[in-house]
Request: fold
Amino acid sequence: MLTILQRNKAKTLDFITQLLIGMLGAAILFIFFHLEVPAKPIVTVDVSGMINRFIKSETAVKLPPEKMQKQVQAFGNTLENTLHTFARQKQVILLPKEAVIAGTKDVSLEIESRLKAKLPPANRNF
Reply:
């Protein structure tokens, strides 16, 4: 009789151990799959359009080459900083508009307004 109780007790302990290990594994899988970082959405920006409009507006002013070069470099740096800041703040991946055929949101107007706010007043006419 005692050996039957010991066997039942051992089987019960084995069952409880397996149950707890299974629950631990399920909890680990749950945490792994539900706490993963969500994918960032992809949005497009018409960078080449902004650059073309800026170049057209700057060439219409007829500046000396040295001043033109400084303004173009300042525009490029400001554009790059604006794009990086926007992507970081909005948690998105930016692609040039030409690289995507369809299915993404275009944020060019928002980027352009942020860019114009950062540029000196003389360079905001693009």
Q: What stands out?
A: The chain has a mean pLDDT of 87. The two ends are 95 Å apart (CA to CA). DSSP finds four helices and three strands in the chain.
